[in-house]
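Database export, one record per block. Field names are fixed; values are copied verbatim from the stored entry.
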Amino acid sequence: MAKCRIHRNNMNVKEALTTLPQYILPHHPLSRLMGVFTESQNRLWKNFFIRRIIHHYGVNMDEALQPDIDAYACFNDFFTRELKPEARPLTAQSDAIASPADGTISQIGDIEQGQIFQAKGKSYSASDLLGGDAARAAPFVDGKFTTIYLSPRDYHRLHMPLTGTLREMVHIPGHLFSVNPATVNSVPGLFARNERVACIFDTEAGPMALVLVGAIFVASIATVWHGTVTPPTSKSIQTWRYQDDAPLLQRGEEMGRFLMGSTIIVLFARDKITWDAELNAGSQVQLRQKIGSIR
């Protein structure tokens, strides 16, 4: 079995001190407050915020379909900006798995006996990630995964790695820890603790799960077939199953988006796909580029 291509350094003191305050912060109230600011249509405020993000993170507005920041009604419209069609061409290989996002690979490799590697000696179970349902997680127990982190500079719409028919969507309430590298290195089972939306598709490579993980200040997670899934946040897991008229989304097509940055985790079943050998933890990827192949 292929080894997971990972980094296993120990958490350092700086990372621990950065993360400690997050255990006591009111995650959801802070995120709702951020949502108020990012939805504000006050021209001075939203343009100041947009310019700061562009300057601080080096956002390439030449790729944006609308490069004029005055044209965005609020910060969230800018943050989920559409790209020019030619900015992210879809891989031409028919058996290719396309990257679902712009971002940095946090981890990539095998799911080993149902465990998904997080960082630096920390793992979590596929079952916990998918809401604690063993039957839902069973196809992925010895499969493949990749975790992609979206920074504030990245395009924040999410697209399909393969053509798929939606079978199920699950909203799993939880915390909203940051998903930056320091916090990922420090908080055990972070991705299975944060609020998330898991979407299960049937594809030519078998079942595929796309898990959209929320984070502190992520004001919303939405899908194209449902609209806004969160907020509001429920106290219990919510499940939508699709049978008649199940949405069919093509490879490379938009499937959802984050308002503010976060992480997407992609799961496949055993012996169905292979990841490209040159991809490792820390690799930069762009939307629709080839990241793997169907076996």
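Remark 1: Residues 91-294 form one domain.
Remark 2: The longest helix spans residues 43-57.
End of record.
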